[in-house]
Amino acid sequence: MSSKGRLRHLVIVLGDQLDANSAAFDGFDPHRDAVLQMEVLEEAAYIVQHKLRLAYFFASMRHFREELGALGRRVYYVSIDDPANTGAFETEIARAQHAFDPERTIVLEPGDWRVAEKLRRLPQPLEIRSDRHFLCSRSEFAAFIADHPRPILETFYRYMRKKTGILMDRYGKPIGGAWNFDAENRKSFGKSSPAIPSLPAQKMDAITIEVRDLVLKRFAENPGKLEDVDLPITRAQAIEQLNDFVSNRLPLFGTYQDAMRNGEPFLFHSRLSGPLNLHRLSPTEVMEAALKNEAVPLNALEGFVRQILGWREYVRGVYWQRMPQYADENVLGAHLPMPRIYWTGETEMRCLADAIAHTIEHAYAHHIERLMILGLFAMLLGVAPYEVHRWHMSMFWDAIDWVSLTNTLGMSQYGDGGALATKPYAASGNYIDRMSDHCRNCRFDPSKSIGEDACPFTTLYWNFLAKHRTRLSSNGRMRNQYLNLDRKDASELQAIRRQADKIVTSMV
Ligand code: FAD
Ligand code: DLZ
Ligand code: SF4
Question: Are residues 313 and 363 in the same domain?
């Protein structure tokens, strides 16, 4: 890093802000301004991370540097193996400010409260710009909450549909006459299931190969597999992935949204969370591409729009509304550490082994695996919600604090007591049996809660309901679950409790 005279603006681009049109670049003058990108050890080490996740972030950042260069923008790029690199945002920003003496240093609001706090406290204040990558700004969400003190996703989603006009007719009514088509979107794969289209293969170029080798050398002990980096890294690859999804998988996205199949990590899902979260794709362009394909049935289109326009915006709003207290929420008082099997996948539970294998191999598992296998088992065991989030941040290529914390601590662990989900996503092995082909080849029986072949999910499910009766039984949406629990006599419940205790002991 060497000084070339005073800069007007130094524009910082963080690892999840890789958009040449972001608000940080508004008014950018290539003759007077420059960009700062920093690979810092602190971000790679504050939580141990999957090798593929690290390679994805560094390769994406380096390709973005090339893309900015092609646009004629000057980039000061600090790589992780630069001997002068001090390893943290604060010190690298100070070093750049010292070298270039910019009149102003600009950054887009970060996607992580921890990073935002660091930047807010710098001795030389930064100009922090609002992120228009999202369709609902933080201030708009705050106003929405003020009008809806007990919000639920559905209210917010309808608000966003009306605001954007997406899937709305000219009379202000939802297209198709309904706000959702969930009844059509709960199919599992039967014997005559459709073939699952393969994902477009992404070839590694010299930059990505260099990053992969660096990660393999420097982070050799980190979890996860890293062979080829078969992920959409460049903007061009992200667009290719989007187009492929819209043509080949979106038509059946809705129908099989909740389904699982052994050995199949992607099914009809988009695998677009990474490019969206790193801002390689905008949510608007993703929805526009989906809406343009006239061959896509409404149940698929609405199901997909709900994820992007509804859930994605909603969890971000909740995150910024409730941080930093949100990270400590733990209404069920769950305190266990993350079990070792989540790092190894070594378990006889076929469903869990498969979802963990997908995670180790691809740094990815689809939504239902995250919620109804990985998250469910942790909640039924009683793992501390923040620990589940930390594991998730470690293992997934698409995890950024705003989206991982809300989904893990809130949606999957019910740590927030219902801010995100109106009831805990608690289910027994019977649910997994209905939605997948795992159980038929598993050594456990999903219908049994006691005995040597009882399914651990089923045992822990009844135990969970009994244990949290005081808090949960008054929730109207859990009425049937408690009616079923009440059919069990005291001796059965005692046996379930003993078996649940044994499972917990074997896990920690
Ligand atoms: P698809 O199934 O194809 O969905 C399309 C898109 O919708 C996704 O790419 C994503 O951008 C969006 N989306 C869907 N559901 C959600 C949601 N609940 N919250 C936010 N966006 C959503 N998503 C992340 O992007 N990063 C995370 O770290 C993350 N952690 C999660 C942890 C748990 C425990 C759970 C239950 C969900 C988590 N999600 C997370 C949400 C969702 O599971 C992923 O977005 C999705 O699995 C990514 O795969 P996909 O791109 O193939 O998604
Ligand atoms: C996840 C990650 C990693 C591994 N490395 C970097 C990095 O070296 N530089 C960087 O700018 N961002 C990195 N990130 C993303 C950050 O942890 C964090 O999510 C964002 O800075 C939040 O905006
Ligand atoms: Fe999972 Fe239980 Fe089914 Fe085995 S029987 S695959 S542990 S749900």
Answer: no
Residue 193 is predicted with a pLDDT of 81
Summarised one tens digit per residue, pLDDT across range 316-331 is 999 999 999 999 999 9
Instruction: Tally Cβ neighbours within 10 Å of residue 398.
Output: 21
- The binding-site residues of ligand 2, defined as CB within 6 angstroms of any ligand atom, are 14-16, 38-40, 43-44, 54, 57, 110-112, 115, 400
Locate 157 and state its tokens.
């989603």
Q: What percent of the chain has pLDDT over 70?
A: 99
Which of 292, 322, 352 terminates a domain? The answer is 322
Q: Atom 22 in ligand 1: which residue has the minimum CA distance?
A: 312
For the segment 185-195, what is each residue's pLDDT rounded down to a tens digit?
888 998 778 99
Q: What order of strands is seen across the sheet that includes strand 9-12?
A: 75-78, 34-38, 9-12, 104-108, 127-129
Q: Is 457 in the pocket of ligand 3 (CB under 6 A)?
A: yes
Which residues, including other chains, have CB under 8 Å from residue 95's CB and lie 6 or more apart?
Answer: 1, 84, 86
Whether 331 is covered by a domain: the verdict is no
pLDDT value for 185: 82
Residue 21, pLDDT > 90, answer yes
Q: Please name which ligand lies nearest the alpha carbon of 276.
A: 1
Give the CATH number for residue 498: 1.10.579.10
Per the prediction, the chain carries an average pLDDT of 96
The pLDDT tens digits for 329-386 are: 999 999 999 999 999 999 999 999 999 999 999 999 999 999 999 999 999 999 999 9
Those residues with Cβ within 8 angstroms of residue 135's Cβ, 6 or more apart along the chain or in another chain: 160, 164, 283, 284, 309, 313
Residue with the smallest CA separation from ligand 1 atom 45 is 273
Is the C-beta atom of 7 inside 6 A of ligand 3?
A: no
CA distance linking residue 446 with residue 459, whole number of Å: 9
Q: Would the CB of 432 count as within 6 Å of ligand 3?
A: yes
223, 231 in Cβ contact below 8 A? no
Q: Is residue 193 included in any domain, yes or no?
A: yes
Asked whether 455 lines ligand 3 (CB < 6 A), one says yes
How many C-beta neighbours within 10 Å does residue 271 have?
22
Q: Are 122 and 90 in contact (CB under 8 A)?
A: yes
Please state the pTM of the whole predicted model: 0.97
Q: What's residue 149's pLDDT?
A: 87
Ligand 1 lined by 234 (C-beta under 6 Å): no
The one-letter amino acid code at 192 reads S
Give the pLDDT band of residue 183 (cuts 50, 70, 90): confident
Tell me: the pLDDT tens digits for 207-250? 999 999 999 999 999 999 999 999 999 999 999 999 999 999 99
Asked whether residue 310 falls in the same domain as residue 373, the answer is no
Picking from 20, 78, 132, 51, the residue whose alpha carbon sits closest to that of residue 361 is: 51
| Residue 442 CB less than 6 A away from ligand 3 | yes
Question: What separation in Å is there between the alpha carbon of 441 and the centre of ligand 3?
Answer: 9
